[in-house]
């Protein structure tokens, strides 16, 4: 079952190799937009304060770039 999941994920990323990089760019832009919103909302304030989406976008972008070259 895990082997089938890894195989299907690899096939999907081979077909759409630029998708993780585009997703990463979207997360980084969303992080910038959250910085502009008021921090009175708990989740928005926490995401803006920790830059969680920025870091997640960078990790996904780097992994996506490496996988795009391999696949």
Question: How are the secondary structure elements laid out?
Answer:
Blueprint: H1 2-15, H2 19-36, H3 42-50, H4 52-70
Helix pairs in contact: 2-3, 2-4
Short précis:
This protein has 71 residues and is mostly helical. It has helices spanning 2-15, 19-36, 42-50, 52-70.
Elements, N to C (H/E) = HHHH
Span from first to last CA? 22 Å
Could you name the ranges where pLDDT drops below 50 across 5 or more consecutive residues?
none
Strand content range: under 5%
Q: Describe the global form.
A: elongated
Helix content: over 70%
Number of domains: 1
Report the count of strand segments.
Answer: 0
- Provide the structure class: mainly alpha
Summarize the biggest pleated sheet: none
Mean of pLDDT:
89
Kindly provide the radius of gyration, computed on alpha-carbon positions and rounded to a whole number of angstroms.
15 Å
How many helices? The count is 4
Explained architecture:
With 71 residues, the protein is mostly helical. The protein has one domain. The chain is built from four helices and no strands. It is elongated. The protein starts with a helix and ends with a helix. The mean pLDDT is 89.
């Amino acid at each position: 079952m895990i082997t089938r999941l890894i195989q299907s994920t690899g096939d999907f990323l081979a077909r759409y190799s630029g998708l993780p990089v585009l997703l990463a760019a979207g997360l980084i832009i969303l992080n910038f937009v959250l910085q502009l919103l008021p921090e009175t909302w708990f989740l928005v304030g926490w995401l803006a304060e920790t830059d969680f989406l920025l870091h997640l976008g960078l990790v996904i972008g780097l992994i996506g770039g490496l996988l795009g070259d391999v696949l």
